[in-house]
Design a protein that fits this description.
mainly alpha; 3 helices
């Protein structure tokens, strides 16, 4: 369970960030489920890559910076996906 807890927290933080991004961008929202999925994927990606990019050893497991990074990663990925969706709908 100790190995799954950071991943679960990254999923949840990313999903929250994705839904915040969906609320912030009404025309770029992917819907409730879409925002949650895009945010969760972004949260996992950011949660795994951020410590590597920052050169921080993750000996302590999971901390608040990892949680915040996952939320921001979810928000960013949802916004990018929402902008792509909006551009595709505009050109169609």
């Amino acid at each position: 369970m100790e190995t799954l807890l950071p991943i679960i927290l990254q999923l949840v933080a990313g999903a929250v960030g994705g839904n915040i991004g969906g609320v912030a961008m009404k025309n770029g929202s992917l819907g409730g489920l879409g925002n949650t999925i895009a945010g969760a994927v972004g949260g996992i990606g950011a949660g795994q890559l951020l410590p590597i990019l920052m050169g921080v050893a993750q000996a302590a497991g999971f901390d608040i910076t990892n949680l915040a990074g996952s939320a921001v990663g979810g928000l960013v990925l949802q916004i990018i996906a929402g902008l792509i969706k909006a551009q595709m709908n505009k050109s169609a």
